[in-house]
Amino acid sequence: MQIQVLKSKIHRVKITQAELHYVGSVTIDEDLMDAANLIENEKVQIVNVSNGERLETYVITGERGSGQVCLNGPAARKAQVGDVVIIISYAGMEIEEAKKHKPVLIFPDDRNKLI
Question: Which residue, of 60, 69, 94, 97, has the fewest CB within 10 Å?
Fold first, then answer.
């Protein structure tokens, strides 16, 4: 049996853009993606600390070093520029593997840059 466990978390980044008329997704700075072990098209959950909204979408690679975190499509209605969010990914694994698993957690600064 497999269970879902925390794989990666980008803790408390700010939304830099919200593009309603775009195919749905979240665009994330490639530096943040690399640090959090996220890949393009990976499913993520976004938890909005500012307003309590939660949503699932997939990742699009953003410009490296830009600090970009942009909600696209319908997700753009779930946050405003400046809102603080947590971006979470999960992985399925066997229970014994999960007991040994260490998730990747990153804590960017208030400009969405790696510390």
Answer: 94
